[in-house]
Design brief:
The structure holds 2 protein chains of 2 kinds. Chain A is mostly helical. Chain A has helices at residues 11-37, 42-47, 50-81, 88-110, 126-148, 153-169, 179-214, 218-239, 252-262, 265-280, 289-312, 316-322, 326-355, 364-397, 402-435, 443-447. The two termini of chain A are 27 Å apart. Chain B is mainly alpha-helical. Chain B has 9 helices and 6 strands, in the order ααββαααββαββααα. Chain B has helices at residues 3-35, 43-54, 77-91, 93-96, 109-123, 151-158, 181-184, 187-195, 213-224, and strands at 62-63, 66-67, 139-140, 143-144, 166-167, 170-171. Chain B has a two-stranded antiparallel ribbon with strand order 1-2. A two-stranded antiparallel ribbon of chain B has the order 3-4. In chain B, α2 (43-54) crosses α5 (109-123). Classes of the chains: A mainly alpha, B mainly alpha.
Chain lengths: 448, 227
């Protein structure tokens, strides 16, 4: 079995580059944990400070997740529109442009070329090239959808999410003199990405995969997609307020942020219940056990990471003590992993075999990789959380010095270094597996 | 659930939240002027913010609780360290750090002055009393309530002694805890240390303070009373 439309093939190099960047991201992440646990000599700190490595770690994350989304969109749009992509050449050019910008930015960080704003360090004029890349992408996908003249809710959600994503990035371009306003709009990019635009994309892709693997009627899936998107946006948009408690904004954000963000787990919960419902009422056997495992894992960890760990410290009464501590780090890691890393991996495992012409593939290594990554990430989250609780108590509640707290947390960072290495091995396993997918071994031969 | 209800939830949910959010944003813009003392955003403060970005400070430190978590939050750094303390740390980070290091940046004197202006302005933002650990240092009418109101206590805070020394569980760990220093050292020795630390301890890393005679006297008297 191959892919129905030739232009779906443009997705493949997107996946390859995304996976390589993913591997690099976790290697740099482990180095960061090492910086927390061990004393780095001053000469090395002077040339390669933590700040540089952190900028690389987070930018690689954003870059590979977005390249994954873009590749995924290019794979899915022809099938959804029932026609070839408008311009494969443009898609390749866009990949080269964005990868070039990303690599230039990361090399630039090493030499201190930065905008100096966390997660959005990519400096001028590279940030404008990112916008150009995004516009090419939206143009290519948009024209394909328009020419197809076939409107589906999944398309709408996906394309809407992508436009939303691009528009929000624009708030990163001006220079804000007032630090409070600067951070106010920084969250329009970061929060409205991960709890707005990216959720729309994720919901659309998940719905599409569910239709593919369970053959549940599109009618039902799309109707519930409307409800989920409505809840995501209702809670997510005003939920941005949970970042506005302590930055010099009016006090009413404690109420709006607290109430709306407390409701944020609801749409995720609905998505999980919904997916479970489709699986139970499926019309035929599920095509691909690994995809099903990944989808389930994603739903559960999305709920745990974004939902539960987010809810834990979103109320102002708790956030007053946990804000900007390792509790935030714990939430960040499991939320990104559960919501967006597993989503990408699920799609890679769905699309890459088909792009290689495999109708069924050997899922054993992929299964191992899923459990390896998920368990390691869960343990990392627990270690970050213990460190975060220590920090919260010693520094914020007891009012002792920052470094006094860090000294008590050091042991947990040593654990995180070990877990980091384990995670790197897991990611390497995933990447190698996806690069060397093999046809499934028939059951009778395996038994013999 | 019917299609009609599903669509209604989508459009209504999105629209209500969006309008509410945009409305609050407009009002926030109005109130931020007061809450952040926007009238005090001098060219120096803005230049200092650019210094903050230039050296990527925010990818180790948090400010307003945002950024990276590798180094202390800088929102109220001016309360903790004072202007001189901030400059001293950036000039010679290796003297103020122990097992976790800060890079040496080639910041100019002009840049350091601007950075201090920026962090002073930042410390005055109304953050709903965040972060909790720095509230005890909150200055009242320019003086440190936590330390009483003596001129020596004010100098201790303003000249950045907290960067290295601790008083009542607050301050740095580089130099000795001074909570009961008056019980260990007499006024004369303290005064000598303040003028030239190496005249008392030959391997002292503490820099000589650039205080006037009156200031040295006030600070030494304050410390000598810490028994």
């Amino acid at each position: 079995m191959s892919v129905p439309y030739q232009t779906q093939r443009v997705a493949y190099p997107y996946f390859v580059i995304a996976l390589l960047l993913f591997l690099l991201q976790v290697i740099v992440g482990t180095w960061l944990a090492f910086n927390y646990a061990v004393t780095i000599p001053q000469w090395l700190v002077d040339v390669f400070p933590f700040s540089t490595a952190r900028a690389i770690h987070t930018n690689l994350l954003v870059l590979w997740i977005l390249l994954g989304f873009m590749g995924t969109t290019y794979y899915m749009i022809p099938e959804e529109c029932k026609r070839d992509l408008y311009s494969p050449k443009l898609a390749y050019f866009q990949l080269a442009l964005l990868t070039g910008v990303g690599v230039t930015a990361i090399v630039g960080f090493l030499f201190g070329w930065t905008k100096g704003k966390p997660l959005l360090e990519i400096p001028f004029p590279l940030d404008y090239l990112v916008v150009v890349g995004a516009l090419i992408f939206l143009f290519n996908v948009g024209i394909t959808i328009i020419q197809a003249r076939r409107w589906t809710v999944i398309q709408g959600s996906l394309f809407g999410g992508l436009v939303f994503l691009a528009v929000m990035y624009l708030f990163n371009l001006p220079y804000y003199n007032n630090l409070t306003i600067d951070w106010y709009y920084w969250w329009w990019v970061i929060h409205l990405w991960v709890e707005g635009a990216w959720e729309l994309i994720a919901a659309a892709l998940t719905a599409w995969i569910l239709i593919k693997i369970t053959s549940v009627p599109r009618e039902t899936v799309e109707k519930w997609l409307y409800v989920e998107l409505g809840l995501f946006l209702f809670t997510g948009i005003t939920g941005t307020g949970h970042h506005y408690y302590w930055l010099g904004a009016p006090k009413y954000w404690l109420w709006f942020g607290g109430v709306f963000s407390a409701l944020e787990p609801l749409p995720i919960l609905l998505m999980v219940i919904d997916a479970g419902h489709y699986v139970r009422n499926r019309r035929e056997e599920i095509k691909g056990k690994l995809i099903f495992t990944l989808a389930t894992g994603m739903a559960v960890l999305h709920l745990i990471g974004a939902g539960f760990w987010g809810f834990l410290h979103t109320l102002p009464q708790i956030n007053y003590y946990t804000h900007g501590s390792q509790v935030t780090v714990a939430h960040g890691h499991i939320a990104f992993f559960g919501a967006y890393v597993l989503l990408n991996l699920m799609f890679f495992y769905y699309a890459m075999p088909k792009l290689k012409g495999l109708s069924e593939f050997d899922e054993r290594r992929g299964n191992l990789a899923f459990w390896w990554l998920s368990i390691t990430m869960m343990l990392m989250t627990l270690a970050f959380s213990v460190a975060g609780v220590l920090q919260t108590y010693i520094e914020r509640v007891m009012g002792m010095g920052y470094m006094t707290a860090q000294a008590q947390m050091r042991f947990w960072f040593a654990i995180l270094v070990v877990l980091g290495v384990v995670l790197v091995i897991g990611v390497a396993l995933t990447v190698v597996d996806l690069f060397t997918l093999r046809p499934a071994v028939p059951a009778e031969r395996r038994a013999g | 659930m019917s299609w009609k209800t599903a669509k209604l939830i989508f459009y209504l949910g999105t629209l209500v939240s969006l309008l509410l959010f945009l409305g609050l944003t407009v009002d926030t813009h109005r109130q931020v002027e007061t809450l952040t003392n926007a009238d005090r955003l001098s060219p120096e403060v803005v230049a200092g913010k650019r210094v903050w970005h230039k050296y990527n400070c925010n990818d180790c430190h948090t400010i307003l609780g945002f950024g990276s978590y590798y180094a202390p939050d800088m929102t109220k750094a001016y309360w903790r360290l004072g202007g001189e303390g901030i400059k001293a740390v950036v000039r010679n980070p290796e003297k103020f750090t122990t097992w976790r290091k800060m890079p040496r940046f080639p910041a100019t004197d002009r840049e350091l002055e601007d950075l201090v202006s920026f962090l002073k302005w930042t410390s005055e933002i109304d953050t709903n009393e965040w972060p909790p650990q720095d509230q005890k240092l909150r200055p009242v009418a320019g003086r440190a309530v936590a330390l009483g109101l003596s001129p020596g206590a004010t100098l201790f805070q303003e000249k950045g002694c907290f960067a290295c020394h601790r008083l009542n569980e607050t301050g740095g760990l580089v130099g000795p805890d001074l909570t009961r220093v008056g019980a260990r050292l007499p006024y004369e020795t303290i005064e000598k240390i303040l003028t030239d630390p190496r005249s008392v301890k030959s391997d002292a890393i503490m820099p000589p303070t650039a205080l006037s005679r009156e200031e040295t006297d006030a600070l030494a008297r304050f410390l000598a009373e810490m028994k």
